[in-house]
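User: Um, any thoughts?
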Amino acid sequence: MTRRLRDPDVELAAGSSSLPRRLDGYPSFAEFIAQDGDAAIYRKFSHLSARNLLYLQSELHNLEGRLQQLDEEDANGLDNEDAQKVVRDWRHFSDPGNARAQEHRELQEQVRGKIKEYRRSIDCIVCSKGR
């Protein structure tokens, strides 16, 4: 005798000794939720999400300060033609042999990654508020 679940790719043979016994706990509860979407109840962890956003904001604020510091140092060195080229010309900014450009690029990559993480976190919070 074969019992068919909602997933057509999964078949369970009754009395078959080659199949593992059913696991109670997360596996069986996940199966129950998958079969009845109304049974799905998940915590939002709103407090932790808000706290995480605050930490991300602090990290971004720190990165922003470091970027402003680099800009100020470059502005103070207006007579340094190389520094001016780095902030105006992509070829100089992307030059792997230019140490100052490397410093800018590494910091900008950190900002880019942190901004993505921050935006994803905000999107998750906004999405969960609509539910």
